[in-house]
Protein backbone atom coordinates (compact mmCIF):
# COMPACT_ATOMS: atom_id res chain seq x y z
CA UNK A 1 0.00 0.00 0.00
CA UNK A 2 2.82 2.39 0.82
CA UNK A 3 4.44 1.87 -2.59
CA UNK A 4 1.13 2.41 -4.41
CA UNK A 5 0.42 5.51 -2.34
CA UNK A 6 3.81 6.93 -3.29
CA UNK A 7 3.33 6.17 -6.99
CA UNK A 8 -0.13 7.77 -7.00
CA UNK A 9 1.06 10.69 -4.84
CA UNK A 10 -1.81 10.26 -2.39
CA UNK A 11 -1.70 9.64 1.37
CA UNK A 12 -1.71 6.07 2.67
CA UNK A 13 -4.34 6.13 5.41
CA UNK A 14 -4.17 3.09 7.67
CA UNK A 15 -6.68 2.54 10.45
CA UNK A 16 -3.87 1.18 12.63
CA UNK A 17 -1.89 4.38 12.09
CA UNK A 18 -5.02 6.44 12.82
CA UNK A 19 -5.55 4.57 16.10
CA UNK A 20 -1.91 5.01 17.14
CA UNK A 21 -1.86 8.72 16.20
CA UNK A 22 -5.15 9.54 17.96
CA UNK A 23 -4.18 7.55 21.05
CA UNK A 24 -0.71 9.11 21.11
CA UNK A 25 -2.15 12.62 20.78
CA UNK A 26 -4.78 11.93 23.43
CA UNK A 27 -7.66 13.04 21.20
CA UNK A 28 -11.20 12.28 22.39
CA UNK A 29 -11.47 9.59 19.70
CA UNK A 30 -8.08 8.22 20.72
CA UNK A 31 -9.13 8.00 24.37
CA UNK A 32 -12.32 6.21 23.35
CA UNK A 33 -10.47 3.80 21.03
CA UNK A 34 -7.84 3.07 23.71
CA UNK A 35 -10.53 2.03 26.18
CA UNK A 36 -11.67 -0.70 23.79
CA UNK A 37 -8.17 -1.77 22.81
CA UNK A 38 -7.08 -1.96 26.46
CA UNK A 39 -10.10 -4.16 27.17
CA UNK A 40 -9.09 -6.47 24.30
CA UNK A 41 -12.10 -5.47 22.21
CA UNK A 42 -12.43 -4.26 18.66
CA UNK A 43 -12.82 -0.52 18.26
CA UNK A 44 -16.46 0.05 17.25
CA UNK A 45 -17.23 0.99 13.67
CA UNK A 46 -18.55 4.44 14.60
CA UNK A 47 -15.29 5.40 16.33
CA UNK A 48 -13.18 4.12 13.43
CA UNK A 49 -15.44 5.86 10.89
CA UNK A 50 -15.15 9.18 12.72
CA UNK A 51 -11.35 8.89 12.68
CA UNK A 52 -11.42 8.10 8.96
CA UNK A 53 -13.79 11.00 8.28
CA UNK A 54 -11.51 13.43 10.15
CA UNK A 55 -8.47 12.16 8.27
CA UNK A 56 -10.15 12.39 4.87
CA UNK A 57 -11.00 16.03 5.57
CA UNK A 58 -7.30 16.98 5.72
CA UNK A 59 -5.80 18.89 2.79
CA UNK A 60 -3.46 16.14 1.61
CA UNK A 61 -6.43 13.81 0.97
CA UNK A 62 -8.34 16.26 -1.21
CA UNK A 63 -6.89 14.84 -4.45
CA UNK A 64 -7.19 11.20 -3.46
CA UNK A 65 -6.18 8.72 -0.80
CA UNK A 66 -5.45 5.06 -0.26
CA UNK A 67 -7.36 3.51 2.63
CA UNK A 68 -5.80 0.53 4.36
CA UNK A 69 -7.91 -1.49 6.81
CA UNK A 70 -11.17 0.34 6.13
CA UNK A 71 -13.75 -0.68 5.18
CA UNK A 72 -13.60 -4.21 6.54
CA UNK A 73 -17.34 -4.88 6.63
CA UNK A 74 -20.40 -4.10 4.54
CA UNK A 75 -21.53 -1.71 7.28
CA UNK A 76 -18.23 0.16 7.06
CA UNK A 77 -18.45 0.23 3.25
CA UNK A 78 -21.90 1.81 3.50
CA UNK A 79 -20.57 4.38 5.98
CA UNK A 80 -17.64 5.21 3.70
CA UNK A 81 -19.98 5.64 0.75
CA UNK A 82 -22.12 8.01 2.83
CA UNK A 83 -19.08 10.00 4.03
CA UNK A 84 -17.85 10.45 0.48
CA UNK A 85 -21.33 11.26 -0.84
CA UNK A 86 -21.64 14.11 1.68
CA UNK A 87 -18.48 15.57 0.15
CA UNK A 88 -19.71 15.01 -3.42
CA UNK A 89 -17.07 12.33 -3.98
CA UNK A 90 -17.04 8.66 -4.86
CA UNK A 91 -14.48 5.88 -4.98
CA UNK A 92 -12.57 5.46 -8.22
CA UNK A 93 -11.58 1.91 -7.45
CA UNK A 94 -11.05 -0.77 -4.84
CA UNK A 95 -8.14 -3.18 -4.47
CA UNK A 96 -8.33 -6.26 -2.30
CA UNK A 97 -5.01 -7.86 -1.45
CA UNK A 98 -5.30 -11.45 -0.30
CA UNK A 99 -2.64 -12.58 2.12
CA UNK A 100 -2.11 -16.09 3.45
CA UNK A 101 -2.79 -16.77 7.11
CA UNK A 102 0.90 -17.62 7.62
CA UNK A 103 1.95 -14.18 6.38
CA UNK A 104 -0.68 -12.48 8.56
CA UNK A 105 0.54 -14.34 11.66
CA UNK A 106 4.15 -13.51 10.80
CA UNK A 107 3.30 -9.80 10.47
CA UNK A 108 1.33 -9.78 13.72
CA UNK A 109 4.16 -11.47 15.58
CA UNK A 110 6.62 -8.92 14.17
CA UNK A 111 4.39 -6.21 15.66
CA UNK A 112 4.43 -7.98 19.02
CA UNK A 113 0.84 -9.18 18.78
CA UNK A 114 -0.14 -12.68 19.85
CA UNK A 115 -3.87 -12.46 19.10
UniProtKB/TrEMBL annotation:
Location of the protein in the cell: Cytoplasm
SUPFAM superfamilies the record matches: P-loop containing nucleoside triphosphate hydrolases (SSF52540)
GO CC term, one of those recorded: cytoplasm
UniProt keyword terms in alphabetical order: ATP-binding, Kinase, Nucleotide biosynthesis, Nucleotide-binding, Transferase
Domain of life: Bacteria
HAMAP family for this protein: Adenylate_kinase_Adk (MF_00235)
Broad enzyme group: transferase
Protein name: Adenylate kinase
Membership in a protein family: Belongs to the adenylate kinase family.
Keyword Secreted assigned: no
Gene giving rise to this polypeptide: adk
Catalytic activity: AMP + ATP = 2 ADP
GO molecular function per UniProt: AMP kinase activity; ATP binding
EC annotation from Swiss-Prot or TrEMBL: 2.7.4.3
Amino acid sequence: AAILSEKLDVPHISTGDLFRANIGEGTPLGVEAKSYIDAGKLVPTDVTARMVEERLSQDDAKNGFLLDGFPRTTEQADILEELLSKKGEKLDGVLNFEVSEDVVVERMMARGRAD
